[in-house]
Amino acid sequence: MKALRIGVILFGLCDLVLTLGYYFRQDWATSTWPWTVSPLDYLLVSSFLAGATVVILWLGLVGDWGAAAGAAMNVGLMNTGAAVYLFQSGLQRRAITFAVFALCNVGVLVWSIRQPIRDRRGVSRFLRGSFGLFSVLLLFASVQLLRRSPTIFPWRIEPETETMFGWLFLGSAVYFIYGFVRPSWHNMRGQLLAFLAYDVVLILPYALMFPTVQPEHFQSLCAYFAVLVYSSVVAIYYLFIDKRTRGWRITTR
User: Fold this and answer.
1) Which residues contact 98 (CB under 8 A, 6 or more apart)?
2) Nearest in space to 145 (alpha carbons), one of 164, 118, 121, 173
3) Cα–Cα distance, 171 to 145 (Å, whole number)
4) For residues 96 and 38, is the Cβ–Cβ distance under 8 A?
5) CA 72 to chain centre
6) 95, 88, 111: which is closest to 34 by C-alpha?
7) Which of 77, 90, 189, 225 is deepest in the core (most CB within 10 A)?
8) CB-based contact 133:51 (threshold 8 Å)
């Protein structure tokens, strides 16, 4: 399994490079998106990539492969939805690329779901309740985006980008639902790592929006920022402060 762990870590580092490319809006990175979007849209994509990066690196470092099942569901659903939408939009080459990724995710899911979760530390009711809350919020956001609601984000997004983001949020919702219905620390740590990375990318840019946000987007900004703060506090507490969960060594009891 050592070779597998090294391969996963290398893949995570490649994802980190792509994350930085989107964050700094490098042409070689942003050209992988199906169409040109605004700088804030690229920032949001980089936040999702950052979340995926830390989960991939964490899995490679600890090698608890059973914990990859929820992540595979997450990314697999994102890629499947994107592939279908891009095909319907006439972007066949892009659709094929996402479809190939989706098939790879299915393969990872089938394999990982058969692997045991070695770290079975329990979780508090508060953390599980927070996962339920995050699941509801992400489901709500994904439905609104797929319905092309104009008020989810504190900036204007083009309809086709709303649909793509809707699939991103739906995949994330499934990830948190999976942790909620199958609670164990290593089945929930990945989600918190991903959410914290997502928050780190977005929280300062969102804070800086308050003086300039358009009035029609002010409530969305307040709600979104509150979620970023709450999820950051929850993630930091359970990842680095709580004595039961802050250790990174796998605990089998």
Assistant:
1) 79, 80, 82, 83, 86
2) 164
3) 13
4) no
5) 11
6) 95
7) 189
8) no
In the chain, which stretches have pLDDT less than 70?
Answer: 150, 249-253
What is the C-alpha R_g of the chain? 18
pLDDT of residue 248: 73
Measure the CA–CA gap between 145 and 161, rounded to whole angstroms: 9
With tokens 């699941």, the residue in question is 135
Q: What is the pLDDT at residue 150? A: 67
Closest CA relative to residue 112, chosen from 79, 78, 63: 63
Q: Which amino acid, 131?
A: F
DSSP symbols for the chain: -HHHHHHHHHHHHHHHHHHHHHHTT-HHHHTTSSS---HHHHHHHHHHHHHHHHHHHHHHHH--GGGHHHHHHHHHHHHHHHHHHHHHTT-HHHHHHHHHHHHHHHHHHHHHTTS--S------HHHHHHHHHHHHHHHHHHHHHHTT-TTSSSS---HHHHHHHHHHHHHHHHHHHHHHHS--GGGTHHHHHHHHHHHHHHHHHHHHHTTT--GGGHHHHHHHHHHHHHHHHHHHIIIII-TTT---S----
- Going from N- to C-terminal start, the domains of the chain cover 2-241
Mean pLDDT over all residues of the chain?
94
